[in-house]
Design goal:
mainly alpha; Helix Hairpins; 10 helices; disordered N terminus; transducer; transmembrane signaling receptor activity; Chemotax_Me-accpt_rcpt; MCPsignal_dom
Length: 739
């Protein structure tokens, strides 16, 4: 918008200058417009002085015409004499010429002398102008070389941008391939679970029945490992049953022996013999023998106390009967608790197995996400590097434009010098021919310079178009980066959902641990060991919950950073759009400058042709001098306008450089954001691996807990059978005493 308004104001000012120059060529008086200051006011002052000189010149020409009319001067002869005087030859009046004609020829003779002197000065000025033209050509050659170098660098930047686009396409292909692999793995896992579920259930039933299981032919390694574990479980169950049967046989045999010994001891105590417990007898059996020994001693003491001893024996047996049911109830409670604990341990073990699978899947997803993020970070680094190279190319372009502006200012200085030369030449009609030749030569040179300026403007417009194309490519890359980051945000949200499931499992595990702690407290002394295990389970559940919360916090942080990265890329895209608008306005300004240069060139060429034709007479010479002065002023104004246009180009180039710097900083921020995301994903992957290791340790602990629960259950059953046999023995003793 700023460039467009500046270009519009420049066109208005240029139109005013052209009208002023036309009025000055006609010798009209001019006034400086209101609001004109600085260099433009000085230009109007120069135009006013030119207008005054043109008016004086027109007056002289009018006087000459009047004299020519009154004296019947032969204009053709005067023009011929004027041409010879302009070439430096001596001019004499023809014989019989009138006094007015003689005075004209005398003046032309003086003009010839002045022309000879002026020719020497003109030769010096021409040589100086040639030197300046040579210097200008050298500068133009240098500018052309720099422009070619700039085009080469822009071409290199385009090739780097194409490479960056190819890298982005490769990254997208890799991401698509990774997603396809993930979908394929999930489908294969679902098919595997659907296929293996029925086989594993059937194998578990056969293992429970004591059969030996083997993996089906052609089974995958994971299925084969499951069947091998089931086979090991079946072997352990078979061994446990064999040990149980052996223990029962040994216990039955021991109870038979103990029953016989107790009956024998009771009979001997009844007969008054002293009874002692066998060596190595258990405390319960030893207490029974002690009671029998006491009874025997009391029986041996006196027959009169026989009834009392029997009653005491009955009381002892009553005490035994009283404690045996309580002990049996306690053993029943222990057995029930052990069975419940075993069942809970099995459920927890199954839940932990599912949880372990989820953790492993999470670890796999984290690794794949880490690889995708690494690829995206590498791509972002390449884009940032290409943007940096583009920024360097833009800086070099700005430097070349500055040099071009310097060349334009030098041309303006040369044009000012040309204007002074034209004013000096037009001060005297005696140097009219020389002035016309110089004006023609300078006009041609100015036309050439205008053409060069037009060519430079066209090249500048092409460079701006290429810059706009590169900026559009950067914008497309930014939009692709936004898409990639958005997809990453969706995947992070999916991880958050998985973490919610993990958190629920941790809460359920905590509740199960609390239930186990309550059951262990109810079991009393027998549940202390189980209480320790329950506390460990609760601690592991708390730790798992804490880790889940930390991971959730990290995911929230990553999501926030992803949003910030998207916002930064969108701001960069907005800056790119602004850069495109500014570049378009600069392109339009260059086109206007190009049109003005072409118009100036056409005008200069027309003036050069007119000067040759107008050298036929004094009036024509006078008009040509006025036209030359007007042309010189127009050239000076056009050069000044070109200088101002170059300043606008400089401002646009500065804006382009600033926008490129913003884009470069945005690309660097995007690269840093990608590296931060890579670090965060690596931390998440490490945490998931630690969680997986902790879960495996927890699974081993629950397996040990399951084994301990089974052992407690077996011991409780054996103790229950022992108490039943002891109750039977007491009943037999009571019957024998009653008999």
């Amino acid at each position: 918008m700023f460039v467009a308004s500046a270009s519009k104001g420049a066109n208005v000012k240029l139109g005013g200058l052209v009208e002023a120059l036309k009025a000055a060529a006609r010798g009209k008086k001019l006034a400086t417009p209101e609001g004109v200051t600085g260099e433009l006011a000085e230009v109007y002052d120069e135009i006013q002085r030119l207008s005054k000189k043109t008016a004086d010149l027109n007056e002289e020409v009018a006087k000459l015409e009047q004299n020519a009319g009154t004296s019947s001067v032969n204009v053709d002869e005067v023009i011929e004499a004027l041409g010879r005087a302009a070439s430096g030859e001596r001019v004499r009046a023809p014989a019989g010429a009138k006094p007015e004609m003689a005075r004209i020829y005398a003046e032309l003779s003086g003009v010839a002398e002045v022309v000879r002197d002026a020719t020497k000065d003109a030769d010096k000025k021409v040589s100086l102008a040639e030197e300046r033209a040579s210097a200008a050509e050298q500068r133009a050659g240098s500018a052309e070389q720099r422009l070619q170098s700039l085009e080469a660098r822009i071409s290199a930047a385009e090739s780097r941008a194409v490479a960056a686009e190819q890298n982005l396409a490769t990254a997208e292909q890799r991401a698509s391939t990774a997603e396809q692999r993930e979908v394929q793995r999930k489908s294969e896992l679902a098919e595997l679970l659907a296929t293996v579920e029925s086989d594993v259930v059937d194998a578990v039933q056969r293992v429970a029945e004591g059969e030996r299981v083997r993996p089906p032919p052609g089974a995958k390694p994971e299925v084969a490992r499951i069947f091998m574990e089931l086979a090991q479980i079946g072997e352990r169950l078979t061994q446990a049953e064999q040990r149980e049967q052996k223990r029962r046989a040994e216990l039955a045999e021991a109870m038979q022996i103990l029953e016989g010994e107790i009956v024998n001891a009771v009979q001997r105590a009844g007969e008054g013999e002293r009874v002692r417990a066998p060596v190595g007898a258990k405390p319960e059996v030893a207490r029974i023998y002690m009671e029998l020994a006491s009874i025997g001693e009391r029986l041996a003491g006196s027959e009169q106390r026989e009834q009392k001893r029997r009653s005491e024996l009955g009381e002892a047996l009553g005490v035994i009967d009283e404690y045996l049911p309580r002990l049996g109830d306690g053993l029943g409670t222990v057995l029930a608790s052990a069975e419940q604990a075993t069942a809970h341990a099995r459920d927890i073990n199954a839940s932990l197995s599912s949880f372990s699978q989820s953790i492993e899947m999470l670890a796999t997803s984290a690794e794949e996400s880490s690889s995708s993020i690494l690829e995206m970070t590498a791509t972002s680094d390449e884009v940032a590097e290409n943007v940096g190279e583009l920024a360097a190319s833009v800086r070099e372009t700005v430097s070349s434009i500055e040099e071009m502006a310097y060349s334009i200012r030098e041309v303006a200085k040369n044009v000012d010098g040309l204007s002074l030369t034209a004013e000096e030449t037009s001060s005297s009609m005696n140097q009219m021919d020389v002035s016309i030749d110089q004006v023609q030569s300078n006009a041609n040179e100015t036309a050439r310079l205008s053409e060069e300026v037009a060519m430079d403007a066209e090249k500048g417009a092409e460079a701006i178009l290429k810059t706009i194309s590169e900026i559009y490519r950067i914008k497309e890359s930014s939009q692709e980066a936004v898409s990639v980051i958005s997809n990453l945000g969706f995947r992070i949200e999916a991880i958050g959902q998985i973490l919610a499931v993990i958190d629920d499992v941790a809460e359920q595990t905590n509740l199960l641990a609390l239930n186990a702690a309550i059951l262990s407290a109810q079991a009393g002394e027998h549940g202390k060991g189980f209480a320790v295990v329950a506390d460990e389970i609760k601690e592991l559940a708390d730790r798992a919950g804490g880790s889940t919360k930390e991971i959730a916090d990290l995911i929230k942080t990553i999501q926030a950073e992803s949003k910030n990265a998207i916002a930064a890329v969108e701001r960069g895209a907005h800056n790119v759009d602004r850069g495109v608008e500014v570049s378009n306005e600069a392109e339009r300004a260059l086109k206007k400058i190009l049109d003005s240069s072409q118009k100036s060139t056409n005008m200069v060429r027309a003036i050069a042709r007119a000067t040759v034709e107008q050298a036929k007479g004094s009036k024509q010479v006078t008009d040509a001098i006025g036209r030359i002065a007007e042309t010189v002023q127009q050239i000076a104004a056009a050069t000044a306008e070109q200088a101002r246009g170059s300043e606008l180009i400089m401002k646009s180039a500065e804006k382009m450089r600033t926008i490129t710097q913003h884009v470069e900083r945005s690309s660097q921020e995007q690269a840093r954001g990608g590296r931060q995301m890579t670090s965060s994903i690596e931390q998440i992957s490490a945490m998931v691996n630690n969680l997986n290791a902790s879960q495996r340790n927890q699974n081993r602990g629950f397996e040990q807990l399951l084994e301990a629960s089974k052992k407690i259950e077996e011991a409780a059953r054996i103790q229950e059978q022992t108490m039943r046999q002891l109750g039977n023995a007491v009943e037999r003793v009571r019957r024998s005493i009653g008999a």
